[in-house]
Protein: Large ribosomal subunit protein bL9
Amino acid sequence: MKIILTHEVSGLGTAGDVVDVKDGYARNYLVPRGLAIRWTKGGEKDVEQIRRGRRIREIATIEQANEVKARLEGVKVRLKTRAGDAGRLFGSVTPADIASAIKDAGGPDVDKRRIEVQSPIKTLGAHQVSVRLHAEVAAKVGVEVIAA
Structure:
């Protein structure tokens, strides 16, 4: 099935790309989550608008990405959340929580979809997450989860 990506999808493409994927993947995952729309001749006209919006939001050069990376890696991110006596969290820390904690700590505004958490954060303590800033630049951010 041919689809038009509306957001960046790891391993598939960026917003505005027209890609061919399996029918079930598009129908059951990408389209319901708003990551893609079905390709039509009318939808092809929307591709340029999606790409224009992406260029405005996107970090354009590697130099800009490295500047943002330096700012991100210099920020101390502390996230307060509820936890039990043994240090286990009630739930887990989401990329949206991390993005708001980065902004609260004085860091740059980061899109939650660019934050990659290797394994779910379900305990108190220090954790590492990766933030994809550019196709070639990723920042490692230390997140300290503390009890509220």
